[in-house]
Design brief:
The structure is a single chain. With 375 residues, this protein is α/β, with parallel strands linked by helices. It folds into two domains: 70 residues, no CATH class; 282 residues, Zn-dependent exopeptidases (Aminopeptidase). It is globular and about 50 Å long. The two termini are 37 Å apart. Zinc ion binds next to loops.
Amino acid sequence: MKRYKKVIALTLSAAMLAGCGFTDRRSEEAESTPSYIDTTTPTPTPPESVAESVTVPADKVGLADSSIPDSSVAAAVEPTIEPTVVPQEPLIEDKMLDPNYEFAGESQVHTDPAKLYTNRYANANDITVCVNAGHGTSGGDNYRTYCHPDHTAKVTGGSTAEGAIKATAIASGMEFADGTPERAVTLAEALLVRDELLRRGYNVLMIRETEDVQLDNIARTVLANNLADCHIAIHWDSTDWDKGAYYMSVPQYESYLSMYPVSETWQKSNALGDKLIEGLQANNVKIFESGSMEMDLTQTSYSKVPSIDIELGDKTSDHSDEALAVLSKGLCDGIDLYFAANPKNPQQAVPAEAESSAAGDQSTEAVPAEETNAN
Ligand SMILES: [Zn+2]
């Protein structure tokens, strides 16, 4: 963990991310030269963000320094009038599907790269989250891939029937009631989640940042397996009654649970899903029933890291900018909760005191963990 100075600056505004243009350029410059930002640049801000730059004592910044989830950091932020020094922007690299990655040979569509953002802010926590904006692979439904890495049949129905051996490599997605394609909304949400995760100190593997990226579901999953610590695929469901958010949990069939690599990841995947639902519910997002539904997905079947397909609503759900910002905060709060409970490195374990304080901030009394444990 790098420390810059006793007092470092943390810009809570999207202005830092958009205003500095890091989405558009490589940021390999200025290794030691702090840059300055123009806080007058008007940009949309996420719900809990501060419109202007503020400075935060280094010991109050994020997971890496204080080992507390970000949700409790907001309360610690006290704006000052000190000059704003922006910590170094993330390093952004293209990552193609390496044919040597396990299961890479099962992918049919993989001619575009994903983008890996390596966090170089002072609160960088060395945890990489794969953010997968569902769909958005033009022509992907012309290809078929094996549902399971061992080529056995699917154990549940879904968009592909139970018993099928192969499924569409990647579906084109649904259309919202107002005609907006699902892929556009999953992309908008993924970009919000990316910026919020970077602000909280995570590295981010972005599967897709444009309308069309040629990576099928297996390619996306294999990239996450090799470059990330967890994988979150963002979707909205094809029902039309504003059903609320839920995640696709791992089907509880003996044959499925014992199949590699599901055998090694299924409990962690369900735990991740539960935490995402907890984070969403704490932000007053409507939740569908218990918050999970068992589904045999290609993504689940090939995942070697905790991996979740989350459905954030359906065709008739609000997908305004405001709604997407709330969903982004909920997802990131859930990711914080997951890694606080399941630290990547033992030294990142949350001290009991900080954990209880963070839990209070999350209003977890609304969702006892046991109740969301559908599995
Ligand atoms: Zn979808």
